[in-house]
Amino acid sequence: WGNNRFQLLLSLKVAEKTKCALPATVRIPSMANSPLPGYSLLQQGIRDLQVSWNTCPQTWDIGKSWLYFHPIHLELSVLEQERPPGPMWASRNWISLADLTWVLDPDYCYALVHPSEPENAWEMRGHKISQKGTFKARLILAKYFVAQIDLMREMCLNYQVNCVHALQREYSFEALCCALWDHSLAPTVRAAFVRLLLTLWVERHPHMEVQTCPLVFVWNDVVRSKPGRVWIPFFELDINWLDDDSHRAKDFDAFTSPQKFQVLTDYVKHHLTSSQGRLVHSNKSPTLYTDAVCKLLMGLLKYGFIYSESQLAGVLNPLLACLDGRTDLLSSAPTNLEGEVMRNRSRSGFMLNRDNTDDDIPLSAVSASSSQLPLLWNENGRTSRDLRTALGESPASGSTSADAQPSLQNLPSGGLAGPLPDMDNGAARYHTSGGTEVVETKVTMCEICSKVLDIAVGNATVQLVRLFAEWQANRGANAMVENMMPQEVMAVVQSMHPRAFDLSYIAGTSFNVMLMDLMMYEHPKLFVVACKLLRQWNSRLSCVMERAADVCLLTDPAESKLFHSMKA
């Protein structure tokens, strides 16, 4: 395997020199025993990814014993040359991955990789450059590398522990995080890295999917719980599961905190916010990358790594803004919104610098600072009357103005305040003849919303059990659940903590209207998903009552002990 890997695959490593710094908004807590995964990025920053392959200075052709052309033949700059490990091995020439893969998405990456050229260099000379033999040869190798990353992901599916352990050293967590934060990499390559990150580091042993709606409760645990506290399922790990090697090495598997992937949660929030609440139908590669990031968010939700109310609202706010199809554009100039169009900057200047706030992406005010979008909120932090008129919504009952809307201070930080309809996209966005990338991304976003509503039902069920425990404590041990006051039960069920799970409140617009708009798309899968989500959103009360009827309370100590052991 080792020699075949060397001969047939491109090698990947992280350069020692720092390329850019993480935004100051990223917070990775330090643990007492050892730092969390990705903590080193705060000290070392984002570094460049380099690749090499088996090659020879001679001209390559089919049937040669080496993999492909030498970097010199491809007009690639060799950054580092590594001595061969043995006499039968060839030397390794390391080049920047961004220099190789910009050919996959030149509209977005050419200016970043060639900062010395004019801003419109690709628009002026792109057709001529794409006809060169070196461009076509690079394109073949870049596609080969993307296929290689997808192959690694396929090998790690379904908890393939041996493959995971064989690949995790080269495709380290820090290396894949560098790929996420490096905006000079082609979106196609970054999407492949996100898919590999999800399979190699999130969906792996000993991680397990959390239960979104528990039905079995231990009575003593319920009595000790705090009533009214929002319940969100989070990652738990019994360290006794792990083998002795994991205990001694303090490796990745030994982390038992749900904060394990804090850097990934911060990145998802950063990416969705920088999208400014809209998807562009003509920008296929960036949209596919957004879809991959949304699938990563779904994985974090499923495995319990989004563990708090503020975390959940922080990612849902910009997600719902992107989900609203009324904010989309049919076409737009290729713009790297996530990197804030880093054109005419040197490689060293391509950074999110802690010391220079002009280079930071202000996660809490991306929409307000953008000249491409009109102001969404007035000076008082309220939605404007024109916005609600454009949305086609009437003010809430009992309110005659937009002042009934929540202020920015009450909304989750880090996202858009609410979606802004694009009055120019018209009904043309409902047709998917130009491509289904936007539609597939919205399907993934709908699935995330469905998972959140499942958690909301679980939270309401937990609140009902806590209410019964409190009610029984006040009325005696012989009280029956059938005798609970109906108004008390309905108050818990109907509230369901709107600040945490009310998607209309978080989005700043009617979630029903948003879903009905999605059902207008001429795409069967999106119609079905949006229709199911609409039903789920409007039947939360019945779902909670059905789940509550199946709740089992364990009062016997022996049964409680058995349940805890089986749960572990």
Task: Please explain how this structure is put together.
The protein is mainly alpha-helical and 568 residues long. It has 24 helices and six strands. The protein has helices at residues 2-8, 40-44, 97-101, 106-113, 121-130, 133-155, 161-167, 173-181, 187-202, 219-224, 244-249, 262-274, 284-302, 309-323, 366-369, 385-391, 437-475, 486-495, 498-501, 503-507, 511-518, 524-538, 540-549, 557-567; strands at 11-20, 46-52, 80-82, 92-96, 216-218, 552-554. It has a four-stranded antiparallel sheet. A two-stranded parallel sheet has the order 5-6. α17 (437-475) packs antiparallel against α18. Mean pLDDT is 76; it is low at 340-423.
Radius of gyration: 26 Å
Order of strands, widest sheet: 1-2-4-3
Could you estimate the helical fraction of the residues in percent? Answer: 40-55%
The H/E string reads HEHEEEHHHHHHHEHHHHHHHHHHHHHHEH
Q: How many DSSP-defined strands?
A: 6
Question: How many helical elements?
Answer: 24
Provide the residue-averaged pLDDT.
76
Rounded to the nearest angstrom, the distance between the terminal CA atoms is 37 Å
Characteristic key phrases:
mainly alpha; 568 residues; 6 strands; single chain; 46% helix; 24 helices; two-stranded parallel ribbon; four-stranded antiparallel sheet
